[in-house]
Amino acid sequence: MKWLKRFHLIVHTVWYFGLLQLLDGELRHPVLRWLMGIVPQSQASQTHSNPVRLRLALEKLGPIFVKLGQVLSTRPDVIPAEYSVELAKLQDRVPAFDGGVAIAQIEQAFGKPLEQIYYQFEREPVASASIAQVHQAYLFDEAGGQGVQVAVKVLRPDIAPVIEQDLALMHFAAGWIERLFKDGKRLKPREVVAEFDKYLHDELDLMHEAANASQLGRDFENSNMLIVPKVYFDYCSRTVMTMQWMNGTPISDIATLKAKGIDLKQLARFGVEIFFTQVFKNGFFHADMHPGNIFVADDGRYIALDFGIVGSLNEYDKRYLAVNFLAFFNRDYHRVATAHIESGWVPADTRAEELEAAVRTVCEPIFNRPLSQISFGLVLMRLFETSRRFNVEIQPQLVLLQKTLLNIEGLGRQLDPELDLWATAKPFLVNWMNEQMGLKALRKNLMKEAPDWANILPSLPRKINDILEQQSRSNSSESLYKQLRNQQVLLVILVLLVGVLVFKV
């Protein structure tokens, strides 16, 4: 009956903070609107603004709902901007669990006593969140003495059943929101909860985070801008993750950074360059780069922490971003509109001129500022807001990217208020576009596919000939057969030209 008690708490919290009143005008059935009118209002529902009431309610419901609010804060295509701003204030802070419980988790994960796993282990955690907490420890060296210092992340015990219970209630509520409210289908509550469901289950598997950290570490190996802690996979499991201990100054501690002689302007530029390197070179980015997850080393490099949330971009996503950023900053709103229609993210019958006008209306005020003061994240957010009117399908990876970009911009301008993001980012966009077009780009893509072509090309003429013979037997038209024969010759010539291009250009 635990779920019933939890359900009662949720219903009471919804009433206490007047959350249903936020959607009063959206109720479909008049009887439901009448019922809403006779339900007494609580004092809390009358003393705070609507966005604040939603934030307080999520905090009251606990860590899982706090995380849902954090996810919603990155969805301006789903909720209004004032709600996004308020929900961004939610903090994932919960009391630590007992160190003895953490030790039991570790021993169960590796099947042996703690003393045989770590040379030294601190029972008191150094950080705690809703999913896991972190302890300081040392590994053994080859001689059995004290080895490298490590951070040990331990999953909260029995967290999975709690998450499953809350997720089940969220799925249930999402279905009814879609049925009862006028705008329910467009808000896609079931899709939002499904996305959140996947996000939480990824965080419940610390091997997933370990793999993310390892990938990012390879991408920035020997970088002069970013340090990624080494992962010790022999000491990792689904409930325990061990990685290199990182000493540094929190990025938000500006006074200490200045006292250590860190070049803040260079640090700000590094942040932008790291972001665009991840996006346009690697297609794999750290998607949770808020101040609590970033330290600065004494040599002026960033230190990345907490790799539970990452984003991946394919070539199509990268092209979409590059085209839109360049079009925005050239004020080519027609290209922005056609790019969205070509992508299939707006209905096919959308008139480009209407979308162009909407984008212009939203973005022209932004460009009344100097380029150095324009926010890339704000541009994307405005674009997503416009998308609500045109039923644009916003891709989850792009929402993650927009959230990350806002974090990077905020950090960069905190370090250097005069930071010109456009000047730093434009070379990445222009170079990427140049690499994707022309003969060099074609040669690069063909070389990438060369192993498959090596197997396909030798047998291709024979396979084409077999198809043509079958066509000639099934169709008595001589002209058709000749036409297909001509196409075969042209195809062979094309293959030969491709081979020359690949190996001679």
TrEMBL record:
Keyword Transmembrane recorded: yes
| The keyword Nucleotide-binding is annotated on this UniProt entry | yes
Q: Which Pfam families match?
A: ABC1 (PF03109)
Signal peptide from the UniProt entry = none
Q: What pathway does the annotation place this protein in?
A: Cofactor biosynthesis; ubiquinone biosynthesis [regulation]
- Where in this chain does the record put each ABC1 atypical kinase-like domain? 89-339
Top-level division of the source organism's lineage? Bacteria
Question: Which InterPro entries has this protein been placed in?
Answer: ABC1_dom, Kinase-like_dom_sf, UbiB, UbiB_bact, UbiB_kinase
What keywords appear on the UniProt entry? ATP-binding, Cell inner membrane, Cell membrane, Kinase, Membrane, Nucleotide-binding, Transferase, Transmembrane, Transmembrane helix, Ubiquinone, Ubiquinone biosynthesis
Q: What PANTHER family is this protein classified in?
A: CHAPERONE-ACTIVITY OF BC1 COMPLEX CABC1 -RELATED, PROTEIN ACTIVITY OF BC1 COMPLEX KINASE 7, CHLOROPLASTIC
What NCBIfam families would the database entry show? PRK04750.1, UbiB
| Assigned protein family | Belongs to the protein kinase superfamily. ADCK protein kinase family.
Would you tell me the protein name for this molecule?
Ubiquinone biosynthesis regulatory protein kinase UbiB
| Gene that this sequence comes from | ubiB
